[in-house]
# Entry
Amino acid sequence: MAAELFPTKKLVPSASTSSTTSIQQYQQQNLTNNNSSSGGGGCCNWQGLYPTIRERNSVMFNNEMMADVHFVVGPPGGTQRVPGHKYVLAVGSSVFHAMFYGELAEDQDEIRIPDVEPPSFLAMLKYIYCDEIDLCADTVLATLYAAKKYIVPHLARACVNFLETSLSAKNACVLLSQSCLFEEPDLTQRCWEVIDAQAELALRSEGFCDIDNQTLESILRRETLNAKEMVVFEAALNWAEAECQRQDLLPTIENKRLVLGKAIYLIRIPTMALEDFANGAAQSGVLTLNETNDIFLWYTAAKKPELLFCTKPRKGLAPQRCHRFQSCAYRSNQWRYRGRCDSIQFAVGKRVFIAGFGLYGSSCGSAEYSAKIELKRQGVPMAQRIIKYFSDGSSSTFPVWFEYPVQIEPDTFYTASVVLDGNELSYFGQEGMTEVQCGKVTFQFQCSSDSTNGTGVQGGQIPELIFYA
# Structure
């Protein structure tokens, strides 16, 4: 897995770093002593150096001392010979127990494991010997595979937690295929949440081109994708080009259609805007002349032809709204903007995707506003957009949208801001709440130091957060 798909992260156990470092230093020294000592015993009382069984056991990790089995790990040309201790391994894994002490156990001094990468195998052994979980972006999927293969459930759970924490639109499609392979339904559900809410980002990611055909079809079938069908079509063509390369085929139009197979009919081409179809799909060459002609007729003719493509638009996700005020009002001398910022901080109890804000409008007749909306986390901008909206003079809220929904993690405060330019007199919120329950999502609000126009928890602007959950 490419390193950029997952942020590097390490999970460290309760034991101190200095203790672990001293054990590793001792292992190196002990190996040197073993090589130079005729008896192979190294230090005669190394056990006395460490007060706990865990620390003494850790000395044996990747250590030739007293090793009674060896593993040749990795594919041909990239193997590594790893020493092991049957008793320790059998205590840590039921598979190793069966391998060494079961009814069908074979007395082998060397065991070949070609389907596991050496770093991932060592990460698993480190957990078994040292009770340490040490994961990084490059090896976490391979470590999950090793943990599943040798039935080390706590390590497997840690791998899944790591993947869920680093889940984003960039890697959600790849992780979806892996979660199905590893039979991890919770991770699969998390992947679908990201893919549905941030569909266009996920479909345009490099990781989308790396998925297998079965995962491709499951995504193209998805009813709740929040994406324009033209984006779905373009993503499928990008995947087809990558698949041609994987199959050593020239990426011609004919070969792209060949590798897509029946998946082409899962793209809801007739639901595109006519302009998108005419300028894009119709001229791509991927469709046959008959298909192109029939789809044009489907758009325009009274008697529509039968199509193999689905003609019903995807439902997408229904946006939800968190309204933080219990009432709104207006006065002759409020609310005025003059280029100042209205801002509020919020946190959520579970992962959501902020799609935009609901804003108040003019309190004295219809008016047009220009809004600069922004989301920040710990002062770092995550998304911003300048957009116009029309207010009809009512006390209703008017939605303004980010280009893409923004992933919001739980238990962290984010800052929502808006700078409005338009009619100076507008509605404003009153009786604000510090906590709002929206379905299964709890929102908490607090004042923001970025707010220079009077907006706070009790009153002001940004009455609604529009989100997907």
Observations:
- The mean pLDDT is 88.
- The CA atoms of residues 33 and 177 lie 48 Å apart.
- The longest strand covers residues 380-391.
- Residues 17-36 form the longest helix (20 residues).
